[in-house]
Structures are given as structure tokens and as C-alpha cells.
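Anyone else keep sequences and C-alpha cells together like this?

Example one:
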Amino acid sequence: MNNIDRLYTPDPVAFAAAYLGHLQTVLQGIDTEEIGQFVRTLARDRGAAIFFIGNGGSAATASHFANDLLIGCKDHERPFRAISLTDNIPIITAIANDYGYESIFSHQLRVLAKKGDVLVGISASGNSPNLLRAFEEAKSSGIKTVALTSFDGGKMRQMSDEGVHVPTEPKEYGPAEDAHMILDHLVGAYLMRCIRAK
């Protein structure tokens, strides 16, 4: 039984208060040094492409991250070259059909990415085969890897060059994905103001 199961009560007001209280605890457990390194990695080379990947709710977060960096930072002269590999359904289904679902991200990376680019994997468990295969492809191609994880971080956390870990118990998808979205807005807010200050 995880914390969300333990917090459940038939009273929605009490549950809301308990959930938000738990989320605050989770957020306080994130290492801000890891966030700082993540920001520095995204900002280090504006010519590099930044690829985001994830499954399910994390696929939506990948799309949101790409949107907030590419458009939200409002630098039209030197925009962040952010791309979500979760967004092109014809490409994803073609790769899944021809090569298997485990290849939907690695195959795109093989075609689109180059040495010096950045791959950001977003996953609560860190164990999705398609993400791990993409990280293997990145490693062999000289692409820097960043893992945004939760639970125990899984294999993706171990494989990555760096990452931001959200400390939750297994199966706490809600707080894990909440925190990953907060990281998106935190990073985007910082980079937009950093650009403005220059």
C-alpha cells in the first residue's frame, strides 16, 4: 500500500488536504542541485537539440516540456531546439508496426539526433523498454542523457548521465507526474527570465 492509498478517505475535502500535504513533502525531497544541473545542461549549447520522451502521462509531460522551452521561453532569435518524440502518431505507429514498440524513440533518435544533443527521459518507474532502448541509442551516439524519475528511479536512472529524482513510493503516479510537471514550469520560468536578463 502506497501513501495515496493510505491517505484515502471518503471525505473529498480531507483527501484533498492530505494529498496536497503529501505532495509538499515529495517536492521538498527533490534535490535542488539536481535541478540546477538539469538547467545548466539544457542551457549549455543552444544549437543542440533537446529531445523529450515518455509514456502515458509522461508523454504528455514530454510534449509540454518541448512547448515550454521552444515557445514559452520567448527567444525567437535563438530558441531552444526542443522536440517531443511522443507527438507524431504516424511515425510512432509505423515504427511500432515495423520494428516493435520498444523502438519508437530509439529509431527516431537514430534518424534525427546528432552527437552533442540531449535526451530527456521522463518516467515514474524508469523501467519502460522503449525508454531504455532510447538511452542505449543515445549513449552509443554521443547524446547526453537526463532521467526525470520517481519510485526508485529504475534502470533509466542508473543509465543516465544525470537526472532529477522525485522521491515517492512505488505506484504513486499522481505525485510523481505532478512533480515532473512542476519541474517543467520551474525550468521554463527560470530559462525565460535568464534570457530576458541578458
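And example two:
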Amino acid sequence: MALSIVRVILYVRDIARVADFYQRHFEMRALPTNKNDWLELVSDGGGCTIALHQASVAQKSGAAVKIVFGVVDIRGFKKKQEEAGLKFGAIHEADGFQFANAKDPAGNSIQISSRGLT
């Protein structure tokens, strides 16, 4: 039986704010729902979805997780997103690929990486 990762769930305090971030900077779109405490985002490029779930008062937002987005042109993508308000750290080079890190509004770690794409 072949398994695949289909969804990453992020527990966040402000679903609308975090959804707007992923829609604006990573061109994800929301799947239709009639729930107020859950929103699932999908990418036209495929891969797993990102589900935003309302964090309880006791849950920590921005836990130990990193979402990696595959990007061929790291410098170009970083520049475009920084012009739109998303600040990345330095671009790093390792074993023939580049990557840069940032955080979403809930404090979750995100990365853009050309690993396996170049």
C-alpha cells in the first residue's frame, strides 16, 4: 500500500489572517467549507494541502513545524514576496540548491527551496 502526505494541519489563532498570508504569497486558494474553525488551502501546483485549524487557548501556535515550498528561482521569488511584505532571511546554498526561511503570521516556520528542482 503506497502512502502519501495529503495534508499538514496548522493550529492558529487567526485563521483569516494566516489564510490571507498563504493566498497572497504562495498563490494557494481556499477549498469551500461551511466551518468557522477549519479552512483548507490547496495549490494548483499539487502537493499536500495546508489545513488551518482554530487553536484552543491552551495550544501553542507556531509549533515545531516547517513547511517547504518548491521554488526554482529563489532570488526572484524572494524579491517579489519581499516587495509584497514577506521578509525572508538570507539565501543559503547547500549541495547545489538554494533556500531561504521566513515565518507565517502564526509563527510557523516556512522555507522556499530549490532542492530537487534545479
